Amino acid sequence: MNIKARAEHYFNRLDPRIASWAFKHIKKIPWVQRRIQAEFGRMMADMEAGVKPYRGKFPTYARLPGVGVTREAILEQMETMKAMEEARWQKGFVSGAVYHGDETHIDFLNKVYALNSQSNPLHTDVWPSSAKYESEIVSMTAHMLGADRVKTDAKVCGVVSSGGTESILLAMKTYRDWARATKGIRRPEMIVPTTAHAAFDKAAQYFNIKIIHIPVDKHYKADVLATAQAITRRTIVIVGSAPSFPHGAIDPIEDLSELALRKGIGFHTDACLGGFVLPWAAKLGYPVPPFDFGLPGVTSISADTHKYGFAAKGTSVILYRDRALRRYQYFKTTDWPGGLYFSPTFAGSRPGALSAACWAGMVAMGESGYLEAVKRIMETAASIRAGIKTIQGLNILGDPLWVIAFGSRTLDIYRIMDFMTQRHWSLNGLHKPSCVHLCVTLRHTQPGVADQFISDLKAAVAYVQANPGVEGGMAPMYGMAATIPVRGLVGDLLEEYIDLLYEV
Question: Angle at Cα 297 formed by Cα 293 and Cα 301, nearest 5°?
Fold first, then answer.
């Protein structure tokens, strides 16, 4: 009996907290440690080829070379790897990851980056263009997300961050410091749906905020009543997703933010995934519930410019309803011998070229460009949803617009995902419940891509039906994560995987 089977046998009927406590102590026993490492070793070996495909094909540099490698040789290696990697995403075989991907658009952003490659927003006296680009990025995003409908004297404002995770971390740090200064809350709590992005758990860990996870309903949307019952005098912020990453569901932001408004606490809309889709989808007539600053209870929004804003990777926007709240995000020190020091985000020096490329991408797209892109994405997503519904054995979770999660009540969905991987598709494996999703992008709107996806998915289902016991791939890892209540065991496995990424 392998470690997964043993863990399931002994721990499945235990309370997860008791199971985790027991595992923490049991895994210290030498023979248990050896069994765990042996099982992990087998799983890592299965995944190593995918994680380290260039071993033996290109020179490896564990130490600095004695003599520098020629620039020509370095560029040749990079061009070869680029050619090997870009084929999948260019053809639209990747979920999310590359949201625009048109060669003309990429070339344009690369030229903008090259023009600004030395700029650093930390030194606005040297590069005042950085301040221009970032202030306009924030303003354009704010007006897209309801700043014009704020019915008070407050002025929606924000900053440019390095990505959605930093935007979320910044917002939660801001609420912590705001609640401490204005309410004297020293043991803060945040309320988030179980489907909220993992960055909120990271913020809770980093900033010592107690995180309260609330359940979602049968449509995978946050439970409003459970949220209301979770509020305490220590609650500093409530979170809702628009949409959630796992299932593409838009939480009831209007009801949740009204709760926050009545209680005088913050409300954060995580629109990292949907901020540059939902406003245009609404204009196109799709059923988009209210989620932005047009709701009086929404006090902050995160929106990723490097996703459907079609900027280069490495930018996001965090917005606040007013400047007073934003100031709790800032870092400044007045007594450092090195001079007066301040920064709006976590980083000091930042790549101004990314902000320049973001600004250029947004201005080049314009409203008409975003409308056309979202129209194509929504139409393609509708075609893919319709195709999945024709496949017996699969079911779509909730009623998503363009982030489409599907599972199966009779088949191992992770083995279906593994088959799709063999057909060169890169999909996102999810759990609780076990499912897979496809985040539709402009890459999928190319002729024939949606049809190819459905054709391969039908073949995957047929294969798994005919071969239910097939092993290998990522299925064992996802299967363990989905079925074993001992989260410490799953966490240890993830640590092993991260270690593998940094092995030369």
Answer: 45
CA-CA distance, 432 to 409, in Å (whole number)?
Answer: 13
pLDDT-above-70 percentage for the chain: 90
Long-range Cβ contacts of 464-472 (<8 Å, 24+ apart): 464/411, 464/412, 464/415, 464/416, 464/419, 465/393, 465/411, 468/411, 468/412, 468/415, 470/415, 470/418, 472/46, 472/418
Cβ-based neighbour number of residue 210 at 10 Å:
14
CB of 316 within 8 A of CB of 166?
yes
Identify the three-state secondary structure at position 405: strand
Give all strands of the β-sheet with 395-396 in edge-to-edge order: 395-396, 403-407, 435-439, 428-430
Q: Which CATH number fits domain 115-362: 3.40.1190.20, 1.10.760.10, 3.40.640.10, 1.20.210.10?
A: 3.40.640.10
Which residue in 298, 291, 243 sits closest to 268, CA to CA? 298
Residue 398 C-beta-side C-alpha neighbours within 13 Å: 26
**From-to residues of CATH 3.40.640.10 in the chain:** 115-362
Rounded to 5°, the CA angle 311-315-318 comes to 120
Q: Are 230 and 265 in contact (CB under 8 A)?
A: no
Give the model confidence (pLDDT) of 461-485 as tens digits: 999 999 987 765 565 556 555 555 5
